[in-house]
Amino acid sequence: MLTPQKKITHQLGMFSGLADQLDQRHPLFILAHKIDWSVFENAFKIYYSEKMGKPSKPIRLMVALLILKYLRNLSDESVVAQWAENLYYQYFSGEHHFQPTIPCVPTELIAFRQRIGEAGVELILKESIRVNKPPDQGTMSVVSVDTTVQEKNITYPTDDKLYKKIITKCWKIADIEGIDLRQSYTRSVKKLSHKQRFKNTKNGAKDARKANKKIKVISRQVGKRNSKEIVFKQSWYLFEGFKTLSAGSNPSAWRQ
What we know:
By secondary structure, the chain is mainly alpha-helical. It folds into 2 domains: about 20-130, no CATH class; about 160-255. It is built from 10 helices and no strands. Helix 4 packs across helix 5 and helix 9 (about 185-195) runs antiparallel to helix 10. It is elongated, with a radius of gyration of 34 Å.
């Protein structure tokens, strides 16, 4: 069920609010007033029921936690735990008084990301671009992003991967050259690759080490077989070529 947005009242209380206690020059304090939070309220309220279900967490709170998570490079557990200790985090999320408890459980952030989907994340990114846009530029067609330290989806080479590449290359060469391998080890490599997946487990480490050694032996055998067949074929082609040339110059030499 959708929780209504908290109303901002300027009535003085017995205790001062967070706005009076915090440094108004702090980046999070300034950013809290630059972001148009009503954009998210209007866009995400369609994902909630107004009358049925458990009361939800405020939309501004959940969006603020996602922004803080990526702004400070924190996990879901860390951003929730630090929120209860950081006054600037709480003011950025729309609180006006200190809250000593965590705002939600970490799994609620996962559910919120799934609820808003990819379109909701793009809306948050769009608003962050608008906030950080220089005032002298009306529209921005290009966004420059420094990805020097961004994590990349890179797989690093290992001995096992190189052995498998050798076997795969040998298979391709055999197909191109028309070499009939006496044993291709296709099924064996597939079974050994399955065992290698459990190298970091307690029960599968021993079998994975044995599979690594067998993969190494197979790569050596397939490579030797290919090289022997290729050398034999090249030698046979050279022999036939010399035979033809010699027969052309002296036909009687090759009557047999």
